[in-house]
């Protein structure tokens, strides 16, 4: 690791942007704690009786999509590391297909949340993209995408490296250009 020099804040705008960056970082770090708490709570035994609305909901399993890509030299920089933008494009494609299985239309990407690079991938790696709808809201849907990388040896031994995760938010329009309502989902 390289130790960076502190940023020199010269203007009022610099101070504002610096403060906003600190707040965004605080929120990002807070997501990890919220996620861990939710995971602990979901593992506790509870009442699993379904309401009428949940019984009519679509299973999220119907929205699962898996895609595999081989990282080739055009997908990487001169060091052999996969371009982050290439991974993002592949993630958007698989997430869009997942969302389309639910809305039966062409979903439109509205936002990307919690996009994290956990590790690198390289030329020759196989990248496995798993996408599934996490939840629907009135006019939007959240799709979670997880990316795992394998080199040849890891592929044979089935030992993936988790390199990326993100949540992508989609909406969909009907023929009249109005927002479609998504059905409820059950995990």
UniProtKB/TrEMBL annotation:
**HotDog ACOT-type domain location:** 61-176
Bias kind Basic and acidic residues: ranges:
46-58
Q: What is its main location?
A: cytoplasm
Record InterPro entries: Cytosol_ACT, HOTDOG_ACOT, HotDog_dom_sf, Thioestr_dom
User: Keywords of this protein's UniProt record, alphabetized?
Assistant: Cytoplasm, Fatty acid metabolism, Hydrolase, Lipid metabolism, Repeat, Serine esterase
- Which biological pathway? Lipid metabolism; fatty acid metabolism
- On the tree of life, the source organism's domain of life is Eukaryota
Q: Name one GO cellular component term.
A: cytosol
Q: Which biological process, per GO, is one annotated for this protein? A: fatty acid metabolic process
Q: Does the keyword Electron transport apply?
A: no
Return the annotated region ranges for Disordered.
Answer: 46-67
Q: Which GO terms of the molecular function aspect are on file?
A: acetyl-CoA hydrolase activity; carboxylic ester hydrolase activity
Q: Where in the cell is it found?
A: Cytoplasm
Q: Which reaction does it catalyse?
A: butanoyl-CoA + H2O = butanoate + CoA + H(+)
Which PROSITE patterns is this protein grouped with? HOTDOG_ACOT (PS51770)
Q: Kindly provide the name given to this protein in its UniProt entry.
A: ACO12 thioesterase
Origin species: Emberiza fucata
């Amino acid at each position: 690791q390289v130790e960076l020099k502190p940023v020199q804040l010269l203007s009022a705008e610099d101070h504002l942007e610096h403060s906003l960056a600190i707040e965004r970082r605080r929120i990002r770090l807070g997501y990890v704690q919220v996620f861990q708490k939710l995971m602990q709570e979901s593992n506790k035994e509870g009442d699993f009786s379904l309401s009428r609305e949940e019984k009519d909901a679509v299973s999220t399993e119907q929205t699962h999509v898996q895609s595999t890509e081989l990282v080739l030299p055009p997908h990487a920089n001169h060091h052999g590391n996969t371009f982050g933008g290439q991974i993002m494009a592949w993630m958007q494609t698989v997430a869009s297909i997942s969302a389309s299985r639910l809305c039966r239309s062409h979903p439109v990407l509205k936002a990307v949340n919690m996009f994290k690079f956990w590790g690198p991938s390289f030329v020759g790696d196989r990248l496995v993209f798993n996408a599934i709808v996490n939840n629907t809201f009135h006019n939007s849907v959240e799709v979670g995408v997880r990316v795992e990388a394998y080199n040849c040896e890891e592929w044979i031994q089935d030992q993936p490296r988790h390199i990326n995760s993100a949540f992508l938010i989609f909406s969909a329009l009907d023929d009249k250009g109005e927002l479609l309502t998504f059905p409820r989902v059950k995990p």
